[in-house]
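Figure caption, in words: inputs first, then the predicted bound structure.
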Amino acid sequence: MRPQRASYYHSQLARFAPRARAPFSGRADAAAVVLTDGTWVPGVRVETASFSLIIDAAVNAVTTALASGRSDFAAVVLSAPVPDAQVAYLGDLPFARLRQIDPVTFAADAFVDELPEVGEALDPFLNQPAPTSHEDGVDLARAAAAHAYAPLSEFPVGCVVAFDDGQLLPGVNVEHPDWNRILCAERNALGTAITYGVGPARNIYVSCPRDPNASSCGACRQVIAELAPDSAIVMDRGNARPESQSAKALLPGSFTGSAIPTRRRKTR
Ligand code: THU
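Bound structure (tetrahydrodeoxyuridine present):
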């Protein structure tokens, strides 16, 4: 039995699903995290040519919510049933006890029969003017890191992507008991950008407050190469000047997957 109000999210997910980036599987999936005050957070599936770096719709929605400092989950609603590993991801979220109600609905105990009264979709954009210096940009990324969920590594990472149109989106690393499903801050922000339909990315500001020498991992470099090829990555260097490098310089010869067949979208 579906909880009451779930049908509202199904109609919203039908609106968001076409934004999914699913050239390889054709699975234009979407998910919504419903927060306890009725605010809801969409996420779409994001495929990359390096298949092991694909971001599921639910992971995208969950990590968008966390980057905005919201972990008061009432439910997660999916546009379509998912494989068991993705079910486990939602069932094992450390900051929200959700149980599966039906193939596409996961709810906290208080919301099993009825989801919260429907509110607005989350506005994840930072309410700030675009930074005019790299220093200002990394300051924003450093502030974003306060929302990181990193109990396993104790290594918070914050990211803010500045788009050509001046909009700003945050990302944080979000850890999970299944270490393979941890999402880095950079990929979190880029996934949110696809859900909300913004781009192209100009500057990707990154801060690892515990390590002023850190640098984006190879997985993030690959995803940046695919989703934001003309961007620059600007790393927080603590008290020293931020270090800026183009995406192309960060991963020369990146995998393009140009020989992988693409498929038409499945409409579900
Ligand atoms: N991490 C990022 O968020 N971005 C990177 O580029 C490097 C690694 C996160 C992932 C994990 O939560 C923690 O840092 C340790 O790897």
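The chain is about 25% helix and 20% strand.
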